[in-house]
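cron nightly-structures :: item 1 of 1
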Amino acid sequence: VQLQASGGGLVQAGGSLRLSCAASGRTFGAYALAWFRQGSGKGLESVARIDWSGDMTDYADSVKGRFIISRDNAKNSLYLRMNNLKPEDTAVYYCAARESGARTYDYWGQGTQVTVSS
């Protein structure tokens, strides 16, 4: 599967953005999906995860209650709604896919920059 993230940009603290990740391939629904981020000089951080059906989600403590991950298998798309953004959310955000039964995310999008100004 090939992934392409979009929707990043510059926003003031307290604002909102919605990231999208478009996927190719007819078996999109078989993949678990996730959003990761990497701030300048920081390591890669898992932000949110969603299972193949969309029924199960998981969030990093730092974004819990502010971010919402969702997917539309009919549109081969993954989303991340980000509310009440903070300067510390500034990072490059990546979408990633993991095949059923796999232990790692082996498919990655190119990343989209999110910058939150104070």
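cron nightly-structures :: done
DSSP finds no helices and eleven strands in the chain.
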